[in-house]
Specification:
This protein is mainly α and 115 residues long. The chain has five helices and three strands. The longest helix has 14 residues. It is globular.
């Protein structure tokens, strides 16, 4: 959900830290994203609610989505595997990859003339 709701690439999602979530400004800070540039993206109310529920359940310490060891981020292959497993369970046969979520948000915003 984070990939789609915030328009993030997989590498950006797995490298999110707790301190990157700014619930006061409703922004997510992306450190060293594409082109090794820092940027901000939107944090929707719905995503914030989901992230708070996730936080209460899993209590991550540093990384929002920790890997097998809590001092390391989640492996990039993990969200990709989750995407393909969910796609298969849903019976979706049309092509596409998890990166489709990252580019969906900007397209929606442009179509709605929000940016």
């Amino acid at each position: 959900m984070t990939t789609y709701a915030a328009g993030l690439r997989v590498s950006e999602v797995v490298n999110l830290k707790l301190k990157d979530i700014d619930s006061e400004r409703m922004m997510i800070r992306i450190c060293q994203g594409k082109g090794n540039k820092d940027r901000y993206t939107i944090l929707s109310t719905r995503l914030l609610t989901e992230l708070r529920t996730y936080y209460r359940k899993y209590k991550p310490l540093l990384w929002l989505f920790p890997g097998a060891y809590s001092d390391k981020p989640m492996n990039r292959a993990t969200p990709e595997r989750v995407y393909y497993d969910a796609k298969e369970r849903a019976g979706i046969t049309k092509g596409g990859c998890i990166h489709t979520f990252a580019i969906a948000l900007p397209r929606i915003c442009l179509k709605q003339e929000w940016i």
